[in-house]
Structure prediction request, 606 residues.
Amino acid sequence: MPASPERLTPDAAPPPGQGLAIAAEALYLLNLLLLPGLAFLALLWLYLHRRDDVPPLARGHLRQTLSASLWAGALLAFVSLALIVLGGYDTAWTWVVVILYFTTAHTTLVVLGTIGLARALAGQPYRFPLVGNLLP
Amino acid sequence: MQLLQYKSQAVAKPYFIAAIALFVGQILFGLILGLQYVVGDFLFPAIPFNIARMVHTNLLIVWLLFGFMGAAYYLVPEESETELHSPLLAYLMFWIFLIAGALTIVGYLMVPYASLAQMTGNETLETMGREFLEQPLPTKLGIVVVALAFLYNIGMTILKGRKTALSIILLTGLVGLAVLFLFAFYNPSNLVKDKYFWWWVVHLWVEGVWELIMAAILGFVLLKITGVDREVIEKWLYVIITLALVSGLIGTGHHYYWIGTPGYWQWWGGIFSALEPLPFFAMTVFCFNMVNRRRREHPNKAATLWALGTGVMAFLGAGVWGFLHTLAPINYYTHGTQITAAHGHLAFFGAYVMVVLTIISYAMPMLRGREVNPERAQVLEMWSFWLMTVSMVFITLFLTAAGILQVWLQRIIPSPQSFMAVQDQLHIFYWLRWLAGLVFSVGLAVYLYSFFAKDKPQTAEAGEAQPAAT
Prediction:
């Protein structure tokens, strides 16, 4: 007898803090894709002003996205810069490594943010692998 | 046990089988091509590079079309809540398309291309000799006949049954596919006009109407495996297809930078094609969001994995790797290099190969008389997913590395080197790409084997005594 799809509980009302969780993930992605720096400042402001008085769902997303954004800054800006300085601006292999590194790292961070946004839209918590644990 | 909601959905099965068989052929020629990059006279003169490349790309297009048609024959009766208008016509068109396709490939391999053009009446209406549209005139006419009969069949089915957003989006995409193919018959002697309208087939297929087909197939599978309300899925699809059309139509301009068209295309093409990752981004969020909000655990885990993989890989291949070289000032340097090849490989695999494999993964078990595949078959299928996906990522990375080096040596340094001199220096990446291709073909072999894998006896007995774990 083939297994049938098992019904789970139907959609409930949106959990508290979902709006802020979505905003945090959206700002994280905006920082990576469209408004680097500005979106980060907005995320930082949200984290500093709202982290103590928001539901756990929102707090988790705020904390995770801010931590991942700080990591993103280090991984994308500083590591790329270090590679250029160490490898030399005027050599082919520096650019092979830097462009491949930057594209791969940036894309990975965007995909993680996309999954985070999907989780926030579904009212669920999300932990960024590796880059979500910078903040206490 | 009757698992298909409508008997005529069974028409999809031969389409899916043919798609998979041609996929195998495509990969075989991919391996031959990969070796020819580094061993220049491999299989020469039996299979010259230009012929192998033509077979590789033409097989891809044909098997994806088989997959799209199979998907439409499977999902339209279910969406329309009625039997297919004419299963007989669908079977007839299947054989016509398969025989025409096979003869075309045999023609490419057995007859010199110029002789093939002469033999098939190309002088009557000159359509051959253009990349991806190399098919002889009779094949092109055959494609039109098959497409018209297919649209008639699908259209009549939708007309007589329930009209859903999914089936209308699918039909819109399929009509667009057929109409835009007509530009394959327009081959003006002015080279600028030729290239201008050639892109109306090539670009407006893969970055236009095919995205609608993809969204509809993905929406259908997610609807079935997650149990999320149809309204939610439809709203997502409206957003996705709007983004796809708004960005993709004028985004055609990113092909018009250097072909002799007016300079404003560099702005139009740049701005709109920079927006082209958006529909793929939305598709990724859509897939994950639907799976996160699922209202049931569907036992077909492999299909769920393919659906999620489609979202992510389409975004990477079509979105990110497309954006990488889409802006005119960057494209000035990267145009026609291995960076384009990297983008082409990941975009086709991530978007269209994976979406066809998604619907096959979902539908094929039912077409074979069971709701889902046995556990072991699913595990093997998921292994094949990871082998093919990871190796395709590596193919893309190696080609990207080759492309960056190529741009540098050929177009950046003060004394640029010739094309062939640069190719010699890219061998390491071509070898690595070939090895990744070999792993891909192992993944494909595992995929094929998964269709025949059965659970071991004790697992099967346990499965009978207890419902399958969900």
User: Anything to note?
Assistant: Chain B has two domains: 1-163, 226-450.
